[in-house]
Amino acid sequence: MLQPVLDVRDLATYFFTERGVVRAVDGVSFRLYPGETLGVVGESGCGKSMTALSIMGLVPRPGRIVAGEIRLMGEDLVGKPDRELRRLRGSRMAMIFQDPLTTLNPVLRVGQQVTESIRIHYGDGTWSGGSRRWSWLADPLGLRRRRIAWERAVEMLDKVGIPAPSERMRAYPHEMSGGMRQRIMIAIALSCSPALLLADEPTTALDVTIQAQILDLMRRLQEEMGTSILLITHDFGVVSELCDRVMVMYAGKVVETGPLDAILNTPRHPYTQGLLASIPRLGDRSYRLKPIEGTVPELHALPPGCSYCTRCPVADEYCAAVAPQLKEISPHHHVACHKVAAAPAMAGEGVPS
């Protein structure tokens, strides 16, 4: 059996506000194996991004992790001081944020931002990059370090498809297109060859053509570097292109998880079925969108039972009173629903083109 790169167990991240305790992430568990891509889907506010920020140790105040374990390559991250987490960010785990224009520093040249991570994480030991091997201890002034970091950064820009990478190193972020900026973010994230890449809506702000190019790039780089990817998205089309498994979240909890084919072709949770039914189908004029009725409950005032019961077409009094637990209904396919039998699989639906 392969050892997971990331093992999250019963993770709970709460925000303590004047209105009450907001359970942004509430008992989330999953594993991510080497070279695998896990897609995390759900509506805005369901806890997708907060799960990723919890893994990175970047939960904003007044939130904090109150329970659970986050094991990266066997090392528990919960409770680690920020100094140790900074050592792991970039070297073992990295994150691509949703909007590169607000993530990149507008007053620093691209080269300064790409080389920063390389210089930080390779500044206290010996690193082997291809056929080159060097020690920072033999470079007290840092001249060789800066030169090699620059060469590594140019190499990464070329790898992510940036034309004339040496010239682009001297450009500012605003001088590049959205697709170029996203490629820069991917280059920064992968510059130190991390074992885990967290991608939070990496293609949302891009047009369809550039989106396809970014997805192809991520797929190719994953094959070359063997990086495990946690992909956060609301787009099932992106999921179908890149993911091996899918985890569906609702109101801070995991409601369904399983292999890609099972989730897309035979979803069993009413929420997953509702998400798929609300996607437009190009070329099918007879198809009518089926929106999910109602709204997501306030996370500081969740019902005692199933959080989805107020919107679910098959819920009853028992659903409103007792919270369901994830249970396996087929190999590696788990659903948290009391009414799985009453919510038949949508066989053959898949993802619309």
Write out key terms for the chains shown.
alpha/beta; 8-stranded mixed sheet; 12 helices; Rossmann fold; 4-stranded antiparallel sheet; 24% strand
Distance, first to last CA: 36 Å
* Low-confidence blocks of residues: 124-134
- CATH architecture verdict of the largest domain: 3-Layer(aba) Sandwich
CATH topology group of the largest domain: Rossmann fold
**Secondary-structure element sequence?**
EEEHEEHEHHEEHHHEHEHEEHHHEE
For the record, the count of structural domains works out to: 2
Principal-axis shape equals globular
Fraction in beta strands? 15-25%
- The total of helices stands at 12
**Gyration radius from CA atoms, angstroms:** 22 Å
Structural class of the secondary structure composition? alpha/beta
Major beta sheet, strand line-up: 6-9-10-3-11-12-14-13
**Total beta strands:** 14
Helix content: 25-40%
How is the main sheet built? 8 strands, mixed
Average pLDDT reading: 88
CATH class wording of the largest domain? Alpha Beta
CATH superfamily of the largest domain: P-loop containing nucleotide triphosphate hydrolases
